[in-house]
Specification:
Blueprint (H helix, E strand, L loop, with lengths): L3 H32 L6 H6 L4 E14 L2 E3 L8 E5 L10 E5 L2 H7 L11 E8 L7 E10 L15 H5 L11 H13 L7 H11 L1 E2 L2 E6 L6 E3 L10 E5 L21 E5 H7 L3 E2 L4 E2 L7 E2 L3 E3 L5 H14 L10 E2 L10 E2 L2 H10 L4 H14 L5 H4 L3 H6 L1
Parallel strand pairs: 4-6, 12-15, 16-17
Antiparallel strand pairs: 1-2, 1-3, 1-5, 3-4, 5-6, 7-8, 8-9, 10-11, 13-14, 14-15
Helix pairs in contact: 8-9
This protein binds calcium ion (CA) (2 copies).
The site of one calcium ion has 6 residues, from loops.
């Protein structure tokens, strides 16, 4: 047994060392607030459920129970699920964020469904919520990675920041090599749905943000009851923006059921559009304000001109002649008939520029990716790629 004096000497030596370590560790622990160090990732917040913290993640949905998150058709404004990936579907990699009353109008998903996919910076207490890793009692919530006094006026993250991983093999490419890389990306790991399942999917992807009982019809812009789907006059049905006959793909699982170009439309308006190519001109379409048509073309209303262009850009890249489907391609004709082509490319490129992607269009892309097909429309995420491939 060592003599007491040895103990005292050891202690005398150790105390300053221990004190120094304590000071150093306190300094390190305090550094984040003093130096405004990088906020936590969602993964870090999940593994560090104590004290307060600032976390940055992407809004992926609305938690409704410990292991249940709604990715669309949101019902409340009181909770968010955030994740390090905007495409996350596993609740184990999500942080549930409480939205207290002062933040609900800007951040609640029932009122702001297009917030899905946006980056969020939130400060609050790192503690369980819905019996799940969470953050409660927020003291600051802003979109993006920087604080602002007017979060609703702040632009969301650019699509590229949320989808760089998805598009990794295409980044930096152009022209035909970009098209080829994108074809592989958007054709890999895809889930196809049946034509019958398209009905319910459209009730989610095209829900009226102002009325969850309705869908918005593409060309007419009319809000109509979800229950009025069918084939009768006054019903809405499933419009193929790339007409089925342009490639004769029918309605088997594949291009005929691809949600990226399927939209609800009034039965009569859908029949009027028929299989016409897209171009400007003609006479006003009764029942669909802002749309025009003549013998060989259809011009959609201004607010969806770019949406239409991006849908058919997607189709031309997604379908390249494999899997027993025709190689769909765009050209400058408005007389394509039943050929697997669609026009008029120069007009579509102009519409794409005139009407860039909106938050609602990006949200629709995200819902299809996260909840249905697990592939994306690259021209909504990267509008600049249209000119590189089709220009
Ligand atoms: Ca638009
Ligand atoms: Ca093609």
């Amino acid at each position: 047994m060592p003599a007491p004096t040895v103990h005292r000497r050891l202690l005398a030596l150790l105390i300053p060392v221990l004190a120094g370590l304590l000071v150093a560790s306190v300094t390190v622990l305090r550094a984040p607030s003093a130096a405004a160090a990088a906020p936590l990732t969602v993964a870090q917040a999940i593994s560090s459920q104590s004290g307060t913290g600032t976390v940055v993640g992407y809004i992926v949905g609305e938690p409704t129970a410990t292991d249940t998150v709604r990715f669309s058709s949101f019902t409340g404004d009181t909770a968010l699920a955030i994740a390090d990936s905007a495409a996350e579907t596993s609740t184990s990699r999500m942080l549930y964020v409480q939205i207290t009353s002062s933040y609900r109008s800007a951040f609640g998903l029932a009122g702001n469904p297009s917030n899905v996919g946006r980056a969020l910076t939130v400060t609050g207490t790192l503690t369980a919520y819905f019996s799940h890793t969470g953050l409660k009692s927020p003291t600051a919530m802003t979109f993006g990675g920087t604080a602002t006094t007017s979060p609703t006026a702040t632009a969301g993250p650019t699509a590229s920041s949320t989808t760089d991983t998805y598009y990794a093999a295409a980044l930096g490419k152009s022209g035909s090599s970009l098209k080829s890389a994108l074809h592989t990306i958007i054709s890999t790991g895809v889930t196809t749905i049946s034509y019958d399942a398209v009905w319910n999917a459209l009730k989610v992807t095209d829900q009226d943000p102002a009325n969850s009982a309705n869908v918005i019809l593409l060309y007419s812009g009319i809000s109509r009851s979800k229950t009025l789907n069918g084939g009768a006059t006054g019903n809405w049905n499933r419009e193929h923006v790339w007409p089925q006959s342009h490639g004769d793909f029918g309605t088997a699982n594949g291009p005929g059921t691809d949600l990226h170009h399927l939209r609800p439309e009034d039965v009569t308006i859908n029949a009027l559009r028929g299989n016409k190519d897209f171009d400007t001109g003609g006479t006003a379409v009764s029942g669909a304000t802002g749309n025009y048509t003549d013998a060989d073309s259809w011009e959609p209303r201004a607010a969806i001109k770019g949406d239409v262009a991006r849908m058919v850009f997607y189709m031309a890249v997604r379908y390249e002649g494999g899997d027993s489907w025709a190689n769909l391609e765009l050209n400058n004709s408005t007389a394509n008939g039943s050929n697997p082509y669609l026009g008029k490319l120069s007009t579509l490129l102009a519409w794409h520029t005139q009407d860039p992607p909106t938050a609602a269009e990006r949200a629709r892309n995200q819902v299809i990716y996260a909840s249905y097909q697990h592939n994306r429309n690259p021209f909504i995420d990267h509008p600049e790629w249209a000119a590189s491939i089709f220009g």
